[in-house]
Amino acid sequence: MIIYLPIGVWGADSPSAILRVSGAGVSVNNRPAADSTALYANDLIQTEKNAVARIELTGSSVDISPETIVEYDVDELVLDHGNVAVNTSNGLRVRVGCLVVVPVNGALWTHFQVSDVDGKLTVAAEKRDVYINERSKSKTKDVKESEQSGRSIVRESERKARQDKCGAGYEPAQPPVNGALLNSPWARLGGAGAIGVVTCWALCKSDDPISPKSPE
Description:
Number of strands: 16
CATH topology: Jelly Rolls
Distance between the termini: 101 Å
Structural class: alpha+beta
Low-confidence stretches: 1-12, 143-147, 167-189, 197-203
């Protein structure tokens, strides 16, 4: 146990990929990246205008274009903005909002590109087919087939574009028109006038006191 535990802890914290950098302007977790940088789960990679980078891991490589923000999550990349080119033989996925791009056959070498600019997802299948799966708002990766709300396929040599419904964000519902109308100054003024009329009618409709001075 004395020998096993340190090895287990070291394995859990060991890097699972290497980032190769070309050009200045590449950062990992908001810190400048070296020419070769070890990557861990949930590391955030950002490239500036004239910089590119490559992720190298077992069974996959990912080329990151300039002006791209992507999170490395071992078996999945989370693309926030920009473009990545994936070459994988172990089913490496790319998620953009609620859309997930995944090879149709994860055991075969598949090459595809994914870009996300202003909430528009574009997928190009360079070698073999890929799926575009639509998931719920949840960021949970392990989603059953029955829980996927939609799926489309991009055939080899095809390019497809979709609007990412989650990328635009779940904006809070706007107040109903009736509610806005009731909050207008004219509605408030009318409401105050109506209250005054009702009050005057209740007090002035009769000169008789509410209760007689003496019982009959």
